[in-house]
Design a protein that fits this description.
It is a single chain. The chain has 352 residues and is of the alpha+beta class. It has 3 domains: 1-16 and 55-78, no CATH class; 17-54 and 160-317, Glucose Oxidase, domain 3; 87-156 and 327-351, 3-Layer(bba) Sandwich (FAD/NAD(P)-binding domain). The protein has 8 helices and 16 strands. It has helices spanning 2-11, 24-35, 66-74, 123-133, 139-144, 174-185, 270-286, 289-292, and strands at 50-52, 58-59, 62-63, 87-95, 98-106, 109-113, 136-137, 151-152, 164-172, 194-198, 215-222, 230-237, 245-247, 258-260, 295-296, 314-317. Strands 1, 9, 10, 11, 12, 15 and 16 form a 7-stranded antiparallel beta sheet that branches. It has a 3-stranded antiparallel beta sheet with strand order 4-5-6. A two-stranded antiparallel ribbon has the order 2-3. The protein starts with a helix and ends in a 35-residue tail after the last strand. The relative contact order is 0.17. Residues 206-216, 221-226 and 337-352 have low confidence and may be disordered. The structure holds flavin-adenine dinucleotide.
């Protein structure tokens, strides 16, 4: 994947956080990380524990995304490209084991599109939903909502993996609040964050290679549009064992699928243990000499407290859901199996 990642980094205009964008809070978080023994590392690639910054892709104060980076840059003007707005991909038409069309709904009006190549790119929630509406997925649950299964693939919509986290809210001093509000007034829309990558005591010993960092924490203060500043320290679980599901409620493409992250449900209790450990590290940051004079833990129980983990911490996610249309060798339970057979009945959903 590396050549593709590197190309995307270039194309999306990712760059390092310029020193002038660092707020007084970020600088203090940096000092805290150094004092707690986290040396500087490149956060753009997997690697050993340490501190660093995420690359940023703000351009002229706007977060850059795929539309300006790819579509506007050199694609939108092509004569052979048509972008359909307000259009939902309802379902794929299948014939003889191949996709033979896609039914889309523009402002609710259906029509069938045909092409030489179809790419399903609806994300971790939209892609399995589209496949399941097309009859590709776990046969039993599809029958339950009156969708005739075409290909019995239990992995579609299973294996949902996201990176859960806990947030330790901190109350900034009036001085820090004023400094951050002033920084925002200066026109720095991006509030830089310091990332710390570390391994919990539950990470496999001797295997702390690049891919095995067990969790990562962010020391961040997020500015509201107008003060006061809200912020804190988050701990995210980077390699969760929990797996959730995406399931259809009906064949209606307008109806959002049911998403169950199922956290924490790994049988060994590993995920909650690692998150607890992450929260302990977040507390060490909050109580460090560099940070404790700038922002303090709130008095009394915090809103949305998560008693199973620790008081004052709020549950959340790093927003990186993956895994719901896993591809891979047949022996992986979540991946399409070569032994799976096409169902014998009609495959055109319009026949349903
Ligand atoms: C708040 C937030 C912050 C994030 N920050 C970062 C970050 O800093 N760095 C990072 O690397 N990642 C970040 N991510 C994760 C990143 O955005 C995703 O991993 C990435 O966008 C996934 O890309 P994708 O193309 O698979 O899906 P998506 O970007 O989700 O694209 C899927 C698209 O398909 C559309 N769609 C779905 N179903 C249908 C349908 N039936 N018909 C028509 N259209 C459909 C959706 O509307 C969507 O536009 C963040 C995510 C969130 C939510």
């Amino acid at each position: 994947m590396e050549p593709y990642r590197a190309a995307a980094v270039r194309r999306m205009g990712l760059r390092e956080v310029p020193d002038r964008e660092l707020s007084s809070w970020s600088r203090a978080a940096l000092d805290a990380a150094r004092a707690l023994g986290y040396g500087e590392v490149d956060m753009g690639v997997p690697g050993p524990p340490g501190h660093g910054f995420p690359l940023i892709n703000a351009v002229d104060g706007r977060r850059w995304n795929a539309a300006p980076a790819y579509l506007d840059a050199d694609t939108r003007g092509r004569a052979d490209l048509e972008v359909l707005g307000n259009t939902l991909a309802d379902r794929l038409l299948l014939r003889d084991g191949r996709v033979d069309g896609v039914i889309v709904r523009t402002d609710g009006v259906p029509r069938t599109l045909r092409a030489g190549l179809y790419v399903v790119a609806g994300g971790a929630f939209g892609s399995p939903a589209l496949l399941m509406r097309s009859g590709i997925g776990p046969a039993g649950p599809l029958r339950d909502i009156n969708i005739a299964p075409v290909l019995d693939l239990p992995g579609v919509g299973a294996n949902l993996s996201d990176q859960p986290g806990v947030f330790l809210p901190l109350v900034p001093t009036p001085e820090l609040n004023a400094a951050l509000v002033e920084k925002e007034r200066e026109g720095e829309p991006y509030v830089s964050r310091v990332l710390v990558r570390t391994a919990s005591e539950h990470a496999p010993r001797g295997r702390l290679g690049p891919a095995h960092s067990a969790h990562r924490r962010t020391a961040a203060l997020r500015l509201a549009a107008t003060g006061p500043v809200r912020g804190g320290v988050s701990a995210f679980l980077m390699k969760p064992a929990t797996r959730g599901t995406v399931r259809l409620r009906s064949a209606d493409p307008e109806e959002p699928p049911e998403i169950d992250p199922a956290f924490p449900s790994d049988p060994d209790g590993h995920d909650l243990a690692v998150l607890r450990s992450g929260l302990a590290t977040a507390r060490r940051f909050a109580r460090s000499a560099a940070l404790k004079g700038l922002a303090a833990l709130p008095e009394g129980p915090a809103a949305h407290e998560l008693p199973e983990v620790e008081p004052h911490a709020r549950p959340g996610t790093y927003w990186h859901p993956v895994g719901t249309c896993a591809m891979g060798p047949a022996e992986l339970p979540a991946a399409p199996s070569r032994s799976t057979r096409l169902m014998p009945h009609g495959t055109d959903p319009e026949e349903r």
